Amino acid sequence: MSKFDFLLQQLTDYQNLQSHQDQTLASKLLQVQIWQKARMQHTHAYFFAIPEHQPMAHYFLNRLYGADDFNELARQIDRFIRNSHTVEKIIPKSALQTGDAGVELAILAIQLDEQVAKYLLENYPIDTPLNDEMMRRAYLAVDQYAPRLHQMELLELLGTKLDKYVRSTMVKTAFKLSKGIAYRYEANTIYDFIDDGFKAMAPLGSAQDFIATFTTKEKQIIDAVHSGHPTPFQL
Fold first, then answer.
1. What phi and psi values does residue 224 have, to the nearest 5 degrees?
2. Separation of alpha carbons 175 and 95, rounded Å
C-alpha cells in the first residue's frame, strides 16, 4: 500500500462532496465558512491579535478553513500522488508529511461544514442570514461532537509536525531549495500551502503551544454546544 493511499482517499472524499454538483448547497457552504471564520476571529480576538500570533491565525483562517484555492490544491495533489515517485523528488518527504496533516484537516473542515449547510437549507428559508442560534441548532442536529473533537486532534497533530520539522535547519534548507523545481513542475499551490504553514510557525516559540491554546477554547465551545448551553459561541 502506498503511503499516499490515505491522502488519495481524502481527496476522493473531497471530490465527491455534493456541493461540487449543487450550486445552492455550495453557496450555503460558503456562508457557513464565512460564519465560521468570523466566529473564530471573535472568539480568539485577543489571542490572534498578539503580533507573533498573527501569521498562524491567518494560516488557520485562510488555509485550513475554506481556502479559496483549495480546488486547485486538490487537483495538484491528486496529480502528484498518482505519481508519488515524482512528488518526493520535488518536495522533501518531511515537508510533505506536514502538508498531509494540513490537507486532511482542511478537507474535514469542508466536510463538516457541508453537513451543516445541508441542514440549514432543509430547515430555513434559503435567504435567511446565519446567526448563532441557527448554527447552534445545526451543530446539534447533525451531531458533530466526535468529528469536531477529531478536528481539534488533527490540529494538535499538525502542531507537533510543525514543531518537529520547521525547527530543523536541514528540512528548512531542503524545502527552500525545492521551490524552483516545485514551480517548474506546477506544484506551486502544494508548495505554497506547506510554505504558509512553515512561515506561520516562524515567529512562534512553539506551534504546539499556540494550537493547544486555540483547541482548548474550541473544545470548551464544542462541549457547551452539546451540553445545551444557550449561547455557546459567546464563551
1. -65, -40
2. 7
